[in-house]
Protein backbone atom coordinates (compact mmCIF):
# COMPACT_ATOMS: atom_id res chain seq x y z
CA UNK A 1 0.00 0.00 0.00
CA UNK A 2 2.74 2.45 0.96
CA UNK A 3 5.57 1.11 -1.21
CA UNK A 4 5.83 4.47 -2.99
CA UNK A 5 6.57 6.33 0.27
CA UNK A 6 10.29 6.95 0.47
CA UNK A 7 12.40 7.83 3.46
CA UNK A 8 12.49 11.62 3.89
CA UNK A 9 15.62 13.52 4.88
CA UNK A 10 16.16 14.14 8.62
CA UNK A 11 15.68 17.67 9.93
CA UNK A 12 19.08 19.39 9.67
CA UNK A 13 19.03 20.74 13.23
CA UNK A 14 17.38 17.82 15.04
CA UNK A 15 19.69 15.43 13.16
CA UNK A 16 22.63 17.32 14.63
CA UNK A 17 21.28 16.85 18.17
CA UNK A 18 20.97 13.10 17.51
CA UNK A 19 24.63 12.93 16.48
CA UNK A 20 25.59 14.97 19.55
CA UNK A 21 23.64 12.66 21.86
CA UNK A 22 25.43 9.61 20.44
CA UNK A 23 28.89 11.16 20.88
CA UNK A 24 30.65 9.82 24.00
CA UNK A 25 33.42 12.46 24.11
CA UNK A 26 33.23 14.09 27.59
CA UNK A 27 33.81 17.68 26.41
CA UNK A 28 31.39 17.61 23.47
CA UNK A 29 29.56 20.87 22.75
CA UNK A 30 26.13 21.36 21.17
CA UNK A 31 25.86 24.71 19.37
CA UNK A 32 23.08 23.61 17.05
CA UNK A 33 20.03 23.85 19.23
CA UNK A 34 18.10 27.14 19.27
CA UNK A 35 17.16 26.94 22.93
CA UNK A 36 18.61 28.83 25.87
CA UNK A 37 20.97 27.05 28.23
CA UNK A 38 22.29 28.33 31.56
CA UNK A 39 25.99 28.67 32.26
CA UNK A 40 26.08 24.99 33.19
CA UNK A 41 24.65 24.07 29.81
CA UNK A 42 21.28 23.11 31.30
CA UNK A 43 17.78 24.01 30.06
CA UNK A 44 16.34 26.91 32.03
CA UNK A 45 12.86 27.34 33.51
CA UNK A 46 12.09 30.96 34.40
CA UNK A 47 11.16 31.69 38.01
CA UNK A 48 8.18 33.79 36.91
CA UNK A 49 6.90 30.77 34.98
CA UNK A 50 7.28 28.43 37.98
CA UNK A 51 5.48 30.96 40.18
CA UNK A 52 2.67 31.33 37.63
CA UNK A 53 2.31 27.54 37.45
CA UNK A 54 2.02 27.34 41.25
CA UNK A 55 -0.76 29.91 41.19
CA UNK A 56 -2.53 28.05 38.40
CA UNK A 57 -2.33 24.79 40.34
CA UNK A 58 -3.69 26.47 43.47
CA UNK A 59 -6.58 27.90 41.47
CA UNK A 60 -7.79 24.35 40.57
CA UNK A 61 -8.85 25.40 37.09
CA UNK A 62 -10.77 23.02 34.89
CA UNK A 63 -9.50 21.64 31.59
CA UNK A 64 -12.34 22.74 29.34
CA UNK A 65 -11.61 23.77 25.75
CA UNK A 66 -10.33 27.29 25.17
CA UNK A 67 -12.21 29.39 22.64
CA UNK A 68 -10.97 28.99 19.06
CA UNK A 69 -8.97 32.20 19.23
CA UNK A 70 -7.56 31.55 22.74
CA UNK A 71 -8.31 33.20 26.11
CA UNK A 72 -9.03 36.93 26.02
CA UNK A 73 -6.74 37.83 28.94
CA UNK A 74 -3.88 36.13 27.08
CA UNK A 75 -4.64 37.79 23.74
CA UNK A 76 -5.00 41.29 25.20
CA UNK A 77 -1.75 41.02 27.16
CA UNK A 78 0.12 39.53 24.22
CA UNK A 79 -0.95 42.24 21.78
CA UNK A 80 -0.01 44.89 24.32
CA UNK A 81 3.45 43.39 24.81
CA UNK A 82 4.07 43.55 21.05
CA UNK A 83 2.38 46.80 20.06
CA UNK A 84 2.04 48.85 23.29
CA UNK A 85 0.30 52.08 22.27
CA UNK A 86 1.73 52.24 18.75
CA UNK A 87 -0.51 54.40 16.57
CA UNK A 88 -3.29 53.88 19.11
CA UNK A 89 -4.18 50.70 17.20
CA UNK A 90 -5.12 48.66 20.28
CA UNK A 91 -7.09 51.46 21.94
CA UNK A 92 -9.04 51.92 18.71
CA UNK A 93 -9.92 48.20 18.67
CA UNK A 94 -8.46 47.61 15.22
CA UNK A 95 -6.10 44.74 15.99
CA UNK A 96 -7.11 41.10 15.66
CA UNK A 97 -5.13 38.78 17.94
CA UNK A 98 -5.50 35.02 17.97
CA UNK A 99 -3.48 32.56 20.01
CA UNK A 100 -1.29 30.38 17.84
CA UNK A 101 0.66 27.15 18.21
CA UNK A 102 3.73 29.25 18.95
CA UNK A 103 5.58 31.15 16.22
CA UNK A 104 5.49 28.28 13.74
CA UNK A 105 1.70 27.93 14.00
CA UNK A 106 1.22 31.71 13.83
CA UNK A 107 3.21 31.88 10.60
CA UNK A 108 1.26 28.96 9.17
CA UNK A 109 -2.15 30.50 9.99
CA UNK A 110 -0.95 33.84 8.60
CA UNK A 111 0.10 32.02 5.42
CA UNK A 112 -3.27 30.29 5.05
CA UNK A 113 -5.09 33.58 5.59
CA UNK A 114 -2.92 35.43 3.07
CA UNK A 115 -3.33 32.65 0.50
CA UNK A 116 -7.10 32.90 0.76
CA UNK A 117 -7.63 36.63 1.14
CA UNK A 118 -4.63 38.69 0.06
CA UNK A 119 -4.73 40.29 -3.32
CA UNK A 120 -1.22 39.25 -4.43
CA UNK A 121 0.29 41.36 -7.22
CA UNK A 122 1.92 38.23 -8.68
CA UNK A 123 0.19 35.12 -10.02
CA UNK A 124 2.30 32.67 -8.05
CA UNK A 125 1.52 34.38 -4.70
CA UNK A 126 5.03 35.13 -3.49
CA UNK A 127 6.34 35.97 -0.05
CA UNK A 128 9.78 37.60 0.02
CA UNK A 129 12.17 36.30 2.66
CA UNK A 130 15.61 37.60 3.65
CA UNK A 131 18.63 35.56 2.54
CA UNK A 132 19.36 33.68 4.64
CA UNK A 133 16.32 33.14 6.83
CA UNK A 134 15.04 30.59 9.34
CA UNK A 135 14.98 27.45 7.22
CA UNK A 136 11.43 26.50 8.27
CA UNK A 137 9.98 29.66 6.66
CA UNK A 138 10.21 28.01 3.23
CA UNK A 139 8.19 24.83 3.90
CA UNK A 140 5.70 26.74 6.08
CA UNK A 141 4.71 29.12 3.29
CA UNK A 142 4.96 26.50 0.55
CA UNK A 143 2.49 24.38 2.47
CA UNK A 144 0.07 27.34 2.31
CA UNK A 145 0.41 27.61 -1.46
CA UNK A 146 2.65 30.67 -1.19
CA UNK A 147 5.90 30.73 -3.14
CA UNK A 148 8.96 31.67 -1.05
CA UNK A 149 11.29 34.10 -2.83
CA UNK A 150 14.22 36.04 -1.49
CA UNK A 151 15.63 39.51 -1.02
CA UNK A 152 19.26 40.38 -0.17
CA UNK A 153 20.01 40.66 3.51
CA UNK A 154 23.38 39.36 4.69
CA UNK A 155 26.73 40.60 3.45
CA UNK A 156 29.34 37.83 3.65
CA UNK A 157 32.20 40.30 3.38
CA UNK A 158 31.27 42.36 6.42
CA UNK A 159 29.32 39.63 8.29
CA UNK A 160 26.75 42.44 8.58
CA UNK A 161 23.69 43.81 6.80
CA UNK A 162 23.68 44.29 3.03
CA UNK A 163 21.50 47.35 3.45
CA UNK A 164 21.97 48.64 -0.07
CA UNK A 165 21.16 45.26 -1.62
CA UNK A 166 18.12 44.88 0.61
CA UNK A 167 16.73 48.31 -0.32
CA UNK A 168 17.36 47.75 -4.02
CA UNK A 169 15.60 44.38 -3.93
CA UNK A 170 12.59 45.65 -1.99
CA UNK A 171 12.34 48.55 -4.41
CA UNK A 172 12.34 46.22 -7.42
CA UNK A 173 9.42 44.10 -6.18
CA UNK A 174 5.98 44.67 -7.64
CA UNK A 175 3.96 47.10 -5.53
CA UNK A 176 1.93 45.35 -2.86
CA UNK A 177 4.30 42.40 -2.42
CA UNK A 178 4.31 40.45 0.83
CA UNK A 179 7.61 40.93 2.67
CA UNK A 180 8.65 38.94 5.72
CA UNK A 181 10.85 40.79 8.21
CA UNK A 182 12.47 39.47 11.37
CA UNK A 183 11.44 41.96 14.06
CA UNK A 184 14.74 41.51 15.94
CA UNK A 185 17.60 39.04 16.44
CA UNK A 186 17.45 37.79 12.87
CA UNK A 187 17.80 34.01 12.63
CA UNK A 188 20.33 32.74 11.53
CA UNK A 189 22.57 35.80 11.10
CA UNK A 190 22.11 37.78 14.33
CA UNK A 191 22.24 40.86 12.10
CA UNK A 192 19.52 43.52 12.55
CA UNK A 193 19.02 46.89 10.85
CA UNK A 194 19.74 49.94 13.02
CA UNK A 195 16.75 52.16 13.98
CA UNK A 196 17.77 54.60 11.21
CA UNK A 197 17.88 51.78 8.68
CA UNK A 198 14.46 50.58 9.87
CA UNK A 199 13.14 54.11 9.17
CA UNK A 200 14.36 53.89 5.59
CA UNK A 201 13.04 50.36 5.16
CA UNK A 202 9.64 51.46 6.52
CA UNK A 203 9.50 54.48 4.19
CA UNK A 204 10.26 52.28 1.19
CA UNK A 205 7.82 49.53 2.16
CA UNK A 206 5.09 52.11 2.70
CA UNK A 207 5.81 53.84 -0.59
CA UNK A 208 5.71 50.50 -2.41
CA UNK A 209 2.55 49.51 -0.57
CA UNK A 210 4.15 46.18 0.42
CA UNK A 211 2.53 44.13 3.17
CA UNK A 212 4.97 43.70 6.11
CA UNK A 213 4.79 40.37 7.94
CA UNK A 214 6.88 40.52 11.11
CA UNK A 215 8.20 37.30 12.59
CA UNK A 216 8.86 38.30 16.20
CA UNK A 217 10.26 35.13 17.75
CA UNK A 218 12.79 36.88 20.00
CA UNK A 219 11.14 39.92 21.61
CA UNK A 220 13.09 40.73 24.81
CA UNK A 221 15.67 38.12 23.99
CA UNK A 222 17.68 40.30 21.62
CA UNK A 223 18.50 43.26 23.84
CA UNK A 224 16.88 42.27 27.12
CA UNK A 225 14.37 45.12 26.56
CA UNK A 226 10.92 44.24 25.19
CA UNK A 227 10.23 47.78 23.96
CA UNK A 228 13.54 48.15 22.18
CA UNK A 229 13.10 44.80 20.46
CA UNK A 230 9.61 45.84 19.26
CA UNK A 231 10.91 49.11 17.84
CA UNK A 232 10.58 48.16 14.17
CA UNK A 233 7.09 46.67 14.55
CA UNK A 234 5.81 49.76 16.38
CA UNK A 235 7.52 52.14 13.99
CA UNK A 236 5.78 50.50 11.02
CA UNK A 237 2.43 50.92 12.83
CA UNK A 238 3.22 54.57 13.59
CA UNK A 239 3.83 55.10 9.89
CA UNK A 240 0.27 53.96 9.22
CA UNK A 241 1.14 50.51 7.89
CA UNK A 242 -0.94 47.47 8.79
CA UNK A 243 1.51 44.69 9.58
CA UNK A 244 1.02 41.06 10.55
CA UNK A 245 2.94 40.39 13.77
CA UNK A 246 3.66 36.81 14.80
CA UNK A 247 4.80 36.33 18.40
CA UNK A 248 6.39 33.36 20.12
CA UNK A 249 6.87 32.72 23.83
CA UNK A 250 9.37 29.92 23.22
CA UNK A 251 12.52 31.95 23.77
CA UNK A 252 11.64 34.96 25.93
CA UNK A 253 9.63 32.93 28.47
CA UNK A 254 11.41 29.64 27.78
CA UNK A 255 8.06 27.98 26.97
CA UNK A 256 9.39 25.98 23.99
CA UNK A 257 7.37 22.83 24.55
CA UNK A 258 4.17 24.59 25.63
CA UNK A 259 3.67 25.89 22.08
CA UNK A 260 2.29 29.33 22.84
CA UNK A 261 2.33 32.38 20.62
CA UNK A 262 0.02 34.79 18.85
CA UNK A 263 -0.84 36.17 15.45
CA UNK A 264 -1.76 39.86 15.40
CA UNK A 265 -3.26 41.57 12.37
CA UNK A 266 -3.36 45.36 12.49
CA UNK A 267 -6.30 46.70 10.47
CA UNK A 268 -7.95 50.04 9.75
CA UNK A 269 -11.07 49.72 11.94
CA UNK A 270 -12.89 47.46 14.42
CA UNK A 271 -15.24 46.10 11.72
CA UNK A 272 -12.29 44.85 9.68
CA UNK A 273 -10.65 43.45 12.79
CA UNK A 274 -13.82 41.55 13.64
CA UNK A 275 -14.27 40.18 10.09
CA UNK A 276 -10.65 39.00 10.02
CA UNK A 277 -11.01 37.37 13.42
CA UNK A 278 -14.09 35.48 12.22
CA UNK A 279 -12.21 34.14 9.19
CA UNK A 280 -9.15 33.18 11.24
CA UNK A 281 -11.44 31.27 13.58
CA UNK A 282 -12.90 29.31 10.65
CA UNK A 283 -9.37 28.38 9.55
CA UNK A 284 -8.17 27.44 13.03
CA UNK A 285 -11.29 25.33 13.69
CA UNK A 286 -10.39 23.16 10.71
CA UNK A 287 -6.69 22.99 11.60
CA UNK A 288 -6.63 22.12 15.31
CA UNK A 289 -10.00 23.31 16.63
CA UNK A 290 -8.67 25.31 19.57
CA UNK A 291 -5.30 26.06 21.13
CA UNK A 292 -3.58 24.44 24.15
CA UNK A 293 -4.53 26.13 27.42
CA UNK A 294 -1.58 25.68 29.76
CA UNK A 295 0.99 27.88 28.02
CA UNK A 296 -1.55 30.63 27.41
CA UNK A 297 -2.52 30.60 31.09
CA UNK A 298 1.13 30.89 32.13
CA UNK A 299 1.74 33.83 29.77
CA UNK A 300 -1.47 35.59 30.82
CA UNK A 301 -0.66 35.10 34.53
CA UNK A 302 2.86 36.50 34.11
CA UNK A 303 1.96 39.44 31.88
CA UNK A 304 -1.12 40.48 33.86
CA UNK A 305 0.55 40.52 37.29
CA UNK A 306 2.81 43.48 38.03
CA UNK A 307 5.31 41.53 40.13
CA UNK A 308 5.57 38.57 37.78
CA UNK A 309 5.80 40.86 34.77
CA UNK A 310 8.67 42.75 36.42
CA UNK A 311 10.35 39.44 37.22
CA UNK A 312 9.98 38.35 33.59
CA UNK A 313 11.72 41.53 32.40
CA UNK A 314 14.54 40.91 34.84
CA UNK A 315 14.93 37.27 33.86
CA UNK A 316 14.81 37.93 30.11
CA UNK A 317 17.44 40.61 30.63
CA UNK A 318 19.64 38.13 32.49
CA UNK A 319 19.40 35.60 29.64
CA UNK A 320 20.26 38.24 27.03
CA UNK A 321 23.14 39.45 29.22
CA UNK A 322 24.61 35.98 29.60
CA UNK A 323 24.61 35.58 25.83
CA UNK A 324 26.17 39.00 25.29
CA UNK A 325 28.89 38.25 27.82
CA UNK A 326 29.66 34.96 26.05
CA UNK A 327 30.05 36.87 22.77
CA UNK A 328 32.68 39.06 24.46
CA UNK A 329 34.40 36.06 26.05
CA UNK A 330 34.52 34.15 22.78
CA UNK A 331 36.19 37.06 20.97
CA UNK A 332 38.68 37.45 23.84
CA UNK A 333 39.47 33.74 23.93
CA UNK A 334 39.99 33.64 20.15
CA UNK A 335 42.57 36.41 20.49
CA UNK A 336 44.20 34.60 23.43
CA UNK A 337 44.32 31.39 21.39
CA UNK A 338 46.36 33.36 18.85
CA UNK A 339 43.80 33.96 16.09
CA UNK A 340 44.71 36.91 13.89
CA UNK A 341 41.33 36.90 12.12
CA UNK A 342 38.73 39.62 12.65
CA UNK A 343 36.01 38.12 14.87
CA UNK A 344 34.42 41.43 15.86
CA UNK A 345 31.14 40.48 14.14
CA UNK A 346 30.55 37.93 16.92
CA UNK A 347 30.07 40.87 19.28
CA UNK A 348 28.17 43.02 16.81
CA UNK A 349 25.55 40.38 16.05
CA UNK A 350 22.46 40.14 18.25
CA UNK A 351 20.32 37.48 19.89
CA UNK A 352 20.67 33.76 20.16
CA UNK A 353 22.71 33.17 17.03
CA UNK A 354 26.04 34.14 15.63
CA UNK A 355 26.75 33.70 11.96
CA UNK A 356 30.40 32.92 12.45
CA UNK A 357 31.62 32.93 8.86
CA UNK A 358 33.04 29.40 9.33
CA UNK A 359 32.94 27.43 6.08
CA UNK A 360 31.19 24.10 5.67
CA UNK A 361 34.57 22.33 5.71
CA UNK A 362 35.63 24.12 8.90
CA UNK A 363 32.34 23.15 10.53
CA UNK A 364 32.90 19.54 9.49
CA UNK A 365 36.31 19.61 11.15
CA UNK A 366 34.86 21.11 14.34
CA UNK A 367 32.40 18.23 14.47
CA UNK A 368 34.73 15.36 13.57
CA UNK A 369 37.90 16.46 15.39
CA UNK A 370 36.58 18.58 18.26
CA UNK A 371 33.09 17.15 18.90
CA UNK A 372 31.59 20.64 18.56
CA UNK A 373 28.24 20.43 16.80
CA UNK A 374 26.80 23.31 14.73
CA UNK A 375 24.86 23.70 11.49
CA UNK A 376 26.90 23.57 8.30
CA UNK A 377 26.16 27.22 7.46
CA UNK A 378 28.44 28.15 10.39
CA UNK A 379 25.61 29.27 12.69
CA UNK A 380 26.59 29.12 16.35
CA UNK A 381 23.85 29.04 18.95
CA UNK A 382 25.41 31.37 21.51
CA UNK A 383 23.05 29.91 24.11
CA UNK A 384 25.18 26.75 24.01
CA UNK A 385 28.37 28.66 24.89
CA UNK A 386 29.26 28.77 28.60
CA UNK A 387 32.16 29.68 30.91
CA UNK A 388 33.01 25.99 30.93
CA UNK A 389 33.40 25.53 27.16
CA UNK A 390 34.23 28.95 25.70
CA UNK A 391 37.98 28.46 25.90
CA UNK A 392 37.82 25.01 24.30
CA UNK A 393 35.54 26.39 21.58
CA UNK A 394 37.90 29.29 20.84
CA UNK A 395 40.89 26.97 20.56
CA UNK A 396 39.03 24.70 18.19
CA UNK A 397 37.76 27.61 16.07
CA UNK A 398 41.29 28.96 15.84
CA UNK A 399 42.69 25.53 14.95
CA UNK A 400 40.27 25.02 12.05
CA UNK A 401 40.64 28.57 10.67
CA UNK A 402 44.41 29.11 11.03
CA UNK A 403 45.45 27.86 7.60
N1 LIG B 1 10.72 32.25 13.68
C1 LIG B 1 12.03 32.24 13.90
C2 LIG B 1 12.86 33.25 13.20
C3 LIG B 1 12.59 31.30 14.75
O1 LIG B 1 13.90 31.32 14.95
C4 LIG B 1 11.76 30.36 15.39
C5 LIG B 1 12.33 29.33 16.32
N2 LIG B 1 13.49 28.73 15.95
C6 LIG B 1 10.40 30.42 15.14
C7 LIG B 1 9.91 31.38 14.29
C8 LIG B 1 9.38 29.49 15.72
O2 LIG B 1 9.57 28.95 16.94
P1 LIG B 1 8.34 28.45 17.80
O3 LIG B 1 7.42 27.72 16.90
O4 LIG B 1 8.93 27.61 18.86
O5 LIG B 1 7.73 29.70 18.35
Automatic annotation (TrEMBL):
List GO molecular-function terms, semicolon-separated: L-aspartate:2-oxoglutarate aminotransferase activity; pyridoxal phosphate binding
Cellular component terms per the entry's GO annotation? mitochondrion
Reactions catalysed: L-aspartate + 2-oxoglutarate = oxaloacetate + L-glutamate
Alphabetical keyword list: Aminotransferase, Pyridoxal phosphate, Transferase
The cofactor required is: pyridoxal 5'-phosphate
Q: Which Pfam families match?
A: Aminotran_1_2 (PF00155)
Q: Name one GO biological process term.
A: L-aspartate catabolic process
Q: Which InterPro entries match?
A: Aminotransferase_I/II_large (IPR004839), Asp_trans (IPR000796), NHTrfase_class1_PyrdxlP-BS (IPR004838), PyrdxlP-dep_Trfase (IPR015424), PyrdxlP-dep_Trfase_major (IPR015421), PyrdxlP-dep_Trfase_small (IPR015422)
Q: Does the keyword Lyase apply?
A: no
- Name the Enzyme Commission number(s) assigned to this protein: 2.6.1.1
What are the transmembrane regions? none
Q: Domain Aminotransferase class I/classII large spans what residues?
A: 27-396
Enzyme type, top EC level: transferase
Q: How does it assemble?
A: Homodimer.
Tell me which family the UniProt entry assigns to this protein.
Answer: Belongs to the class-I pyridoxal-phosphate-dependent aminotransferase family.
In terms of NCBIfam families, this protein maps to:
PRK09257.1
Additional note from the record: In eukaryotes there are cytoplasmic, mitochondrial and chloroplastic isozymes.
Q: What is this protein called?
A: Aspartate aminotransferase
The species this protein was found in: Salpingoeca rosetta (strain ATCC 50818 / BSB-021)
- What lineage is this protein's organism placed in? Eukaryota, Choanoflagellata, Craspedida, Salpingoecidae, Salpingoeca
Amino acid sequence: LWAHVQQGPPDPILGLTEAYNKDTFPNKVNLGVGAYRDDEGKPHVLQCVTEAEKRLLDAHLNKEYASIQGPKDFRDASAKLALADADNALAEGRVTTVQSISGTGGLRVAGIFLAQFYNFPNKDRAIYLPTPTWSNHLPIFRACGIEPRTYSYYDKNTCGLDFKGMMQDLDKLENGSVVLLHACAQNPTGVDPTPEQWHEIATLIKQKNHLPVFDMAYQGFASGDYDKDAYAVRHFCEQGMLPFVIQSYSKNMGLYGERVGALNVVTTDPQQASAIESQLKIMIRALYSNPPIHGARIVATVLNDNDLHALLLKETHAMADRITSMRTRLVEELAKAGSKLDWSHIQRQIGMFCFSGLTEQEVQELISTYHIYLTKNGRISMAGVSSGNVEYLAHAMHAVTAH
